[in-house]
């Protein structure tokens, strides 16, 4: 599909209206405490503030034992460097610092909509109202920078290559996404592919790797080894046939349940994809409350994109450069997700545009409204979960100081109160306090808990709303596992539930 007109400048008021429509409803949640993986990125931020050249030298207990962040946090330091000036600022100020990335993302989505959909405003609305984009907008995670640099870099590169203009600035912009998440490396094959489809020289393609090469040289200077390679070994621990099958099913449910909602005109091929998905998901014993159907529906976007008839006004079903480019983008993303330790819905973000833009423009209004509504409901759940978990941690810390198990926001709140993480397998000192949660991912420790000093629950004031983490229905938007003991497999990103957000107790050993 050809582009329309010239690129939309940032002074176009329609673009700013789209930005405001996405950002304004999130104001109410700007002050929510850090939760889930936000805590480890704030730890890395403290490392960057203390030693900007060696941010990964900071210590953290995130795998059960306190160790150097270099060995356990599998992300580059881009976000830590970005937030380091605000390391001691209130959380609302840190979240506000993520909003500039929304402006860049909106511009990139607008350009992708002009080029691959039926208009810039349609593209921006469609992509920016994906539930995962809404969740990432003010999250203290590298997802917002990753998405912004991806869409802006790809959009600028695609247009420049077509117009025979200089592509190197856009390649450097796209390559900079790898400074925030290494998953951006999976986008590199798109560069030579598009250059080939446009009959341009491939000589400039390696420039996309320059930012990461420079980061690797930094790592050698700072740590004596390249962090990306170390994390390659760290990630390569879930490659049995069962692990691959689990990740494949979870990737599909995450995609169709929380990234690109399957709202379009279904045809026979989509129904077959849904049946295949249900057959894949249903036998896995971790799927609760009839979620096999959700697994089938989640296959629908891929089925539409790769098996359905291309959306072409003249009815021509032959592959086009656009279709080849977008389909490769989507398939590369799926392949990359299968190589990771676990699957999370947000890991789809750099590949979201390909899947969304491959769908026809029909039902655009419904897709925008449903995606936006689900995103706001999940943000609400996220904010309430963070506040509830923090409140329990504060009640526990009021008893004194001691050690704790469990990660996520629970860990951040107790560390801020002067408590220390109890290493996996360790026993606390006699007479000391130990705070133990049920839901915040625990480490196995040698704690008898014969004397319970305090016990509490945090319940949702609005039961049966979409929950991004719930043991009772086996839902976890952030991973394809539910906390133990023992941890259990999950394939559902969210569902309706009424169980407690958290249950915690403080024991005196």
Structure description:
It contains 20 helices and 13 strands. The strands form 5 sheets. A 5-stranded mixed β-sheet has the order 4-3-5-13-6, covered by helices on one side. Strands 1-2 form a two-stranded antiparallel sheet. The chain has a two-stranded antiparallel sheet with strand order 7-12.
Mean pLDDT: 84
Output the structural class: alpha+beta
User: Looking at the chains present, what oligomeric state does this protein adopt?
Assistant: single chain
Radius of gyration: 23 Å
How many β-strands, per DSSP?
13
Uncertain residue ranges: 1-8, 285-293, 307-318
Strand order of the largest sheet: 4-3-5-13-6
Characterize the biggest β-sheet. 5 strands, mixed
Report the β-strand fraction as a percent range.
5-15%
The helix tally amounts to 20
> Termini separation (Å)?
68 Å
- What is the share of helical residues? 40-55%
The global form is: globular
Topology:
Blueprint: H1 13-23, H2 38-50, E1 59-61, E2 66-68, H3 78-83, H4 91-96, H5 99-116, H6 120-128, H7 131-136, H8 143-162, H9 168-175, H10 190-197, H11 210-223, H12 227-235, H13 241-259, H14 268-281, H15 292-298, H16 300-307, H17 321-337, H18 352-358, H19 364-397, E3 402-404, H20 408-416, E4 420-421, E5 433-437, E6 452-458, E7 465-467, E8 469-470, E9 475-476, E10 481-482, E11 488-489, E12 495-497, E13 502-508
Parallel strand pairs: 3-4, 3-5
Antiparallel strand pairs: 1-2, 5-13, 6-13, 7-12, 8-9, 10-11
